[in-house]
Amino acid sequence: MTLEALLRKYLDDELSPDELRLFRELALQKESRAELDRLLALWIDREFPFPRQEDIDIDTIYLELTQNKDIPVGVQPAESPRSGRRFFLFSLSAAACVLLAAGIFLFRRPSRLAMPSIASTAVLPAAAITPAGSKAVLTLAGGQRIVLDSAADGYLTSQGAMRVIKLGSGQLAYQPAKGGSPSASISSPAGAPDPLLYNEIATPRGGFYQLILPDGSKVWLDAASSLRFPTTFSGAQRLVELRGEAYFDIAPNKDQPFMISTQGVTVQVLGTELNLMAYQDEDAIRTTLVSGSVRVIRGNDLRQIQPGEQASWLQGGKAWQVSTPDMRQVLAWKRLEFRFEGLSMDAIMRQIGRWYDVDITFRGAQPAGEFNGVISRKKTVTDLLAALEETDIVHFTLEGRRVIVEAGPKPSIH
Question: Largest CB tally within 10 Å, which of 83, 193, 312, 388?
C-alpha cells in the first residue's frame, strides 16, 4: 500500500493495527519525508483553507505524527467531588496528533464518539444553529450598506481615490484607482485636501471576516466585532477604531505609525502582528503581541510589550498588567478552535454565544471550577455542548436560539 493511501486511511482513522505499524515505519524513513510533507500540506490546504499556510509548521506536525500515542483532551474542574479523577470531553484519535500544531482538530466520527444528546424544547431545529461563517456588512462613507457575504466577487464600489474589491478568497480589499496612492489624500479642485472618507466593516454574532486595509495591512475580525477606518491613510499616523476582537498584520511604515483605538485604550504599532480583544462584556482589554513591538496607552499609563507578552487593562483597573499567556489559546479563534485552558464556564459560554449567535442563560448556580479542552469551531453547537456535558458537572437545554446552562449532570430520563 502506498504512503498516500495509508495517510488517507490514517486521517480517516481507518487503519488496522498492521497498517498503522506499516504507516509509522514508512513515515519514519528519511526518503519518505519530502513526500509526506507534500501530502500533508495538500490535505491541510484543501480541508482547512481558513488558516494561512505560514501558520502551519510541518516539522512539528511530522513530530506529532511519529509519536506512538494518543493525546487526551479534557475538561476538568479545578474543584470537584471526584477530584482524583480526570474528566474527558473525548479522546482524540491518533490521526488528530497530526493536526495539533496546525491549529486544526480532527474528531472521531459520531458513530465512534457516541455523543450524548442535548435536551431541547427548540422551536428552531438545533441543526439550524450553525458555526460562524464569513459574514460582514460594509458601511460606506455616505451611509450605504453592502452585505459582503452575499455580494459577488470583484469590484463593489469606489470611495474617493480607492476601489473597493471583494477578492475571490472572500477578503475585502482597498486598491488605489489608476494613478492613485493608498496614502495620498484626496484633493478638491481648489487644491485643498477633502475630509477623509471613513468606512466601517462589522461582523455579526455568528460571523467573521478578513480584509486588507488601504495601506496593505491585513485584519481578521472575530464575531460581533467592527473596525472603522479611513479609505486613505494620510497625515502623521494611520488610525483605526476597533470594537470586539481582531488580529492585525500591520504593513511596516516607520514614518506613519499604525494606531488602534478602543474603549479609551490606544495601541501604537509599527510593523507587527498582534491580537486585540476588546469586547465590552469581557473583564479586560487585552493586547497580545505576536511579533514586532507595540505600546499600549491608557491615560498617562504607557507600556511597551515584547513578542509573547500580553498587556491587559482590567475593567475598573488603574494600571496595565503584563503577562505571558498561552498564545495557542489567545489565537485559537483565528485558527477555528475553541481552546479552553483554565477558563470558567461563564467565559466559555461568552465565546459560544458570539460564535453560534445564541443567547446564554444560567439557571441556578454556575458550574464551579476551571475547564480545559480543545474543540473545533466547525462543530455544531449540539456536538460542542454534548462534549461539555461529558464532564458531568454541567448540562444544557436548547430553547430556540437560547442555551440554558445548569450545574450538575444531565438528569436521567426514565
Answer: 388
- Region 104-130 average pLDDT: 42
| CA-closest candidate to residue 249, choices 54, 44, 41 | 54
What mean pLDDT comes out for the span 277-302? Answer: 95
> Computed from CA positions of residues 326, 330, 335, 341, in that sequence, does the dihedral angle turn out positive or negative?
positive
Residue 61, in any domain of the structure: no
* Residue type (1 letter), 229: F
DSSP state of 365: S
- Give me the mean pLDDT over the 387-394 stretch: 88
Distance of CA 43 to the CA centre of its chain: 21
Question: Mind giving me the DSSP string for 76-115?
Answer: --SS-TTTTS--EEEEPPGGGGGGGGGT------HHHH-P
Number of residues in the chain: 414
State pTM to two decimals: 0.71
With respect to residue 54, please indicate whether it lies within any of the assigned structural domains: no
- Same domain? 354 vs 308: no
Domain edge (last residue) among 186, 218, 234: 234
Q: Find out whether 322 and 285 touch, Cβ atoms under 8 Å.
A: no
Distance CA 212, CA 200 (A): 13
